């Protein structure tokens, strides 16, 4: 079976105290002891902690492909990624169900709160479209935007109208 990846996208806040490496270790333990493993692909051996099974990708990592660098263009952003078998789609609540206490999404959300992180369930691309009287307008948030903290808060609340006001 092929499969796909599921990611958890985070942004550090002024109150985040742990390093990305420490956060990666903590998140890995949470996921490896959760029901999510039912559909996960494992790499490495059990004795090396399944190194590579849960990947960390962070802002500023120039070894990443350009498209990933673009996805992580905002300072203090990072993501964890797991590989899944196709079978996960038959049990999607275990991966994407934010109300399912054992799901990947629920665990990521809880992890973010515990570690003072912003959690973007669907990622934070910094791009969106808004319907205007002239049609659709494309917005692209610059990585050095002075209002990035406020934009992130609004993004988490799906308040794109307020984001457009800031950007215009």
- What is the second-level CATH architecture of the largest domain? 2-Layer Sandwich
- Per CATH, the class of the largest domain reads Alpha Beta
Percent of residues in helices comes to 25-40%
In what range is the share of β-strand residues?
Answer: 15-25%
Rg is 17 Å
Based on secondary structure, the structural category is: alpha+beta
Major β-sheet, in short? 4 strands, antiparallel
Write down the overall geometry: globular
- Spans of at least 5 consecutive residues whose pLDDT stays below 50 are none
| CATH fold topology of the largest domain | Alpha-Beta Plaits
Overall average pLDDT: 90
Alpha-carbon distance between the termini? Answer: 47 Å
State the strand order across the main sheet: 2-3-1-4
Order of helices and strands: EHEHEHHEEEHH
Give a count of the beta strands, DSSP E runs of length 2 or more. 6
SS element count, helices: 6
Count structural domains: 2
Question: What is shown here, in short?
Answer:
The chain is of the alpha+beta class and 168 residues long. Helices cover 30% and strands 23% of the residues.
